[in-house]
Hints:
The protein is of the alpha+beta class. The protein is built from 24 helices and 19 strands.
Amino acid sequence: MAMLLLFVVSAGLLALAMFVYRADPRSAIHRWFASFVACFATWAFGIAGRQWGTHLDAWNDLVFASASLLPSTLLGFTYVFPARSTVVPPWTMRANLAVGGIFALLAATTPLIYYNPVITPHGFERQSGSLYPVFAFYMLATWMLALATLVSKWRTAENVARTQLRYLTWAFLLSGLGGLTTNLVLPWITGRSTYTWFGPYFGVVLIALIAHTIIRHRLMNLRLVIHRGLTVTVAAVIVLVPVAALVLLVWPRLAERLDVGEHVVLIGAVVTVGLISPFARDLVATLLDRYVYRTHASYQRTVREASAVLTRVLNMTDVLDVLTTTLRTTIAPEGLAIYSATASRLTRVACARGLETSRFECPDQLATGIAARLARTTDAVAIDHVAAGDANRDIHAQMRTLNWSVVLPLFAESALIGTIALGPKLSGDPYYREDLNLLMTLANQTGIALKNAQRYREVVVAHEYVARIVASIDSGVVAVNAIGQITLFNEAAAHLTRLDAADMHRRFAAALPKPLSEGLNTALHTGEVMRVPEVALIDAAASRPVILTTSPVRDQSGAITGAVAVFSDLTPVKELEHERRKAERLAYFEMLASGVAHEIKNPLVAIKTFAQLLPRRQDDPEFIDEFGRISSREIARIERLLDRLRTLANPSERPHVRVDLRAPLGEAVEVMEPTFADKGVQLVVNVPDEPVHIVADHDGLKQLILNLLMNAYEATPTSGTVVAEIHREPDGARLTVADTGDGIAPELLERIFEPFVTTKPWGTGLGLAISAGMAAMHGGHLRASNADGGGARFTLSLPLAHAAVTVAA
Length: 809
């Protein structure tokens, strides 16, 4: 049983060595410590193996070889931890390591250190060699030198380093004193090795004190590593205690009935059951959490309470009061100072001392070196946790002069906006990593709170700007929240809708005129931006045309939080447009006057000539017949001209409705197909599969398309082709009619839509002018061009319909 426990101790020591080494293999401190503990584990392992009673020479060689390296590795660790010693020269450490290696080699290959190992009824025995006294003196002297080095550093260290050195000194003193007494001094004095098996148990003391120093005082900064791997180890130890007690209690009876193999199986089964016990696992986890984080619950509560308050305050004074109270209650420092960025400097805005006699200083401005260090590292500067090298010597000197222990940065959006300086704790305890984590958490939240206060002030100012702008513009502005409640309704909106602005607040969008409510609901539910060039707002008094735009309001995640509608009265625009059209129409008809006079004068000249000849030739029947025929023809020509002029002067007054552009094209094609077929002209029609909706007069649009098809028909020779196509574009619809005729003469291309301009000898030149006018009446335009392969192309562009509404023409 003793052998099994020794193996357990060896395994625990080896696990500790691996934990430390894997934490930072490049660190000399970690390597020396891991080497010392690994030698200790090997020494314990050799003594445990020696209990088997076989291969004693090999086991004892392992024991003495590992023991020879224990003092030198211990001295190496005390030399470099926490910083390299300035008292012990470096060659002493290297020489001691070489001597230890020589003794290890002699112990393993010669009888100069020991010889003749045997198992007697009293236990293990061996004989001391001629160099054993020298070996013993080396062991004691090196161990004492290592302890002296550790104690000297302990006496001059401060804060965390002093605490760590105190525990390390006790760990090495107790484990070394016990092991050296049982395994070196007593065998040297008595010549017997009866109690050497007990020496490795002092490794438990070493494990316990080192583990305590790591957990509670962050020895070699190993908290995270120990936190992850220590639970299973401690659970095994705790479970093995009752298992060992049970086995020891029944051991005499078990020894009589079971052989060695059955003992191993039984003990392994009991240990396995204990290890997988949920109760034991949960209990160990709970105890370990409490042990590692002795103020964990308090820190959580502190952060929670501070966060709850900091998220509610919106000015710097309240933030500083909350922070000062929280720090003085939680940390209890000798003093604290808070600095805030003003222009390019950090100026003190708060200072508090825990004691009147405290040496804590609060200068008006933060030292430039400390501010630069905080901005560069973005982390706390703590004397306990920053090595005093060349790069930090000035910072340390400044902080010690001011009696500062920790300086915390306050960041917002990667910019240093303030700092917090803390003095030593009134209790005298150092600042542990948990303290710094808490302080940095509070500092981060304070930085956010200060930035939020600044942003709140900016939002208030921006809201005032927006409110004044919205109140002063002539466009109506209506905003709703995510559930459709009206949150903004300016005076212009009240004027345009004839609704009371005060009564509309917090009412739902359904209370608005239909175009506004539908647009806002569409933006809320679909997230689409809708722009309607013209829509009628109808109230009890009148109907007015407006241009309307509705769009959703989104947060940073893209979620819709509301919608806004902006609409402007088009009545003044309509009136101006009407006046402009009147002026253009007057100028247009001035141009028409001369054209009409010219067109009418020709037939009138013929009629006048026949009328002048009539008195002299009234008895001539042939003349009379020709006079009647020519007069009728010329009068009919005048009548046709007047009809076209009437169409040009009086556009259709029929209402414009939502129309699929494919429908009037299809009807026009159906009318013209027989005509095209009789002439032998191929008519090709290409339209999209989806509807192309516009707002138009269906019959008027059909007549416009007939004019274009007829014009192409007349210009296309037999066996030619006319192509009519519809294309849907992002900004509108396009109808193209192309022929394979002779095209349009370049000198006429720019004037083709003017009245009385024609490429046909028999034409009046009014058809295309009428078509261009109808296109303009629909909000579009008609263009003419020549195709690259020959022939003319007429393109009609019209705006798409944005909503299913009826718009007055």
